[in-house]
Amino acid sequence: MVSLPRIYVGTIGEGLWRSSDGGETFRRAAEGMFVECHVRALVVDPRDARTLYLGSEQGLFRSTDGADNWNRIDSPLNGLQIWSILLLPSNPDVILVGTCPSRLFRSADGGRTWTEPQVGMRQECPRILHTRVPTLLADGGEPDTVWAGVEIDGLYRSRDGGRTWQKAKGDGLSSLDIHGLVAVSADSKPKRLLASTNNDLNLSTDGGETWQPLGVGQSLPWSYCRGMAQHSRQPQVVFMGNGDGPPGSTGVIARSADGGRSWQAAQMPGRANSTIWNFAVNPADPERIYASSVSGEVYCSTDGGLSWQKLAREFGEIRAIAWTP
User: Fold this and answer.
1) Strand, coil or helix: what is 211?
2) Are 287 and 262 in contact (CB under 8 A)?
3) Residue 226: how many CA atoms within 13 Å on its side-chain side?
4) Which H/E stretch holds residue 142?
């Protein structure tokens, strides 16, 4: 008997939902935390599919039983609004967390002890009151290189696994409003670093010092770009959320098969009800990918992102999504 994937959906104001039957039904999975919390960050431990980390406005939580139960990790993050979590692939005991207002925290021992690197991120922003760190990226080709994208303050880079940070020069960026990041090195030299923003997708081939806007609005319906992900087995295949704004009223899933050089809107049952915000990939099945619109729709692809089906269940506002075997 083939087991169905577990799908985890993090929402604003409705906590975490879990499906154990491939998306046919969903139930809340919030035992141990505020049931109506705001879940903006959710990651799976690559060593154990039943261990997950979740970030809310109450701090950092961990489950070791597939979200049956959650425990808050006592840390300086208690009471902070968490927007991103990264387990370093080369050593998943190293946990990096980004917050709003923008700060970074690091644990080197699985969450037992914490430090706050001196990063110097801007924290105030008139339009959104406080900046935030919506994306953290580990560079697969350089195990100690980590990127942090800040909305709205550009990019920061660490060369030592998150211990110390420097702001990338960022010349040429179409916007400092960074939403998503991917690094493509398997099929290209020099490495291609892609950063999605509110007005375009940007490319750097010199480690983030200089950038070129790619003008994706010429091949996609809109220039507003959001979440990004890569195929687990083919890193040159990149996915990106596209839509008419934040949150927007319509959106599409964009797919590139050549490391971001060209883009096409994927085959969907219809345009989404808002901008596509998040993706979930898992190396257990590289062809299975989930995507969510910020206004509550969930989509699934089983052919590597070429075509998508919409799940029947809809939510209020989705900010995080993950899946496990």
Assistant:
1) coil
2) no
3) 25
4) none
Residue spans of the chain under pLDDT 50: none
User: Rounded to the nearest 5°, which phi and psi values hold at 135?
Assistant: -145, 135
pLDDT digits (tens, 9 = 90+) for 181-230: 999 985 556 789 999 999 999 999 999 999 999 999 999 999 999 999 99
Express each pLDDT in 84-122 by its tens digit: 999 999 999 999 999 999 999 999 999 999 999 999 999
Cα gap 268→321, rounded to integer Å: 19
Q: 279 near 229, Cβ under 8 Å?
A: yes
| CB neighbour list of residue 224: distance below 8 Å, 6 or more residues apart | 198, 199, 242, 243, 244, 245, 246, 248, 275
Q: Smallest Cα–Cα separation from 147: which of 101, 103, 207?
A: 207
CB atoms within 10 A of CB 15: 21
Task: Give CA–CA dist 104/165, Å, rounded.
Answer: 10
Cβ-contact 8, 52 below 8 angstroms: yes
Tell me which amino acid residue 10 is.
G
Tokens of 203: 């490319």
Q: Is the backbone of residue 209 left (phi > 0), alpha (psi -120 to 50) or beta?
A: alpha
Pairing of strands 192-197, 178-184: antiparallel
Please tell me the predicted confidence (pLDDT) of residue 101: 98
For residue 246, the Cα-to-chain-centroid distance in whole angstroms is 16
